[in-house]
Design a protein that fits this description.
With about 120 residues, the chain is mainly alpha-helical. It is built from 5 helices and no strands. This is PspC domain-containing protein.
Length: about 120
């Protein structure tokens, strides 16, 4: 997996979220580690953090065929406290329905295989 800044798990630049996704750990632990590191290095780690945030690319947008959950309040423009999610390619309802039904079939087959294994 290529290291990149996170689009979805970002507090400042998304660097800690990207590192956490790359390592497979909770981003809160990475943020805590960076905070403690900044204190113990006298701010040197903060400089490294900012430089890394400028050099690392932002992760790619949603892969083709993927879908993203958007709370209905935000989808209809009622909740404007948080920024809108990253742009998602327009997918027709029939295409999204097809993708979801394919995913449901795959999950059902995995569940059946798991239940047979027990």
């Amino acid at each position: 997996m290529k290291l990149a800044r996170s689009r979805t798990d970002a507090k400042l630049f998304g660097l800690c979220g990207g590192i956490a996704a790359n390592l497979g750990v909770n981003s809160a632990w990475v943020r805590a580690f960076v905070t403690v590191g900044i204190i113990f290095t006298g701010g040197l780690l903060l400089l490294v953090y900012v430089i890394a945030a400028m050099l690392l690319p932002v992760e790619d947008a949603m892969p083709a065929g993927a879908y993203m959950y958007v709370p209905s309040s935000r989808a209809y423009g009622f909740d404007t406290r948080e920024p809108a999610p990253a742009a998602v390619p327009e997918i027709s309802w029939s295409k999204e329905k097809e993708i979801l039904s394919r995913e449901i079939r795959e999950l059902r087959s995995r569940l059946d295989a798991y239940e047979r294994a027990e």
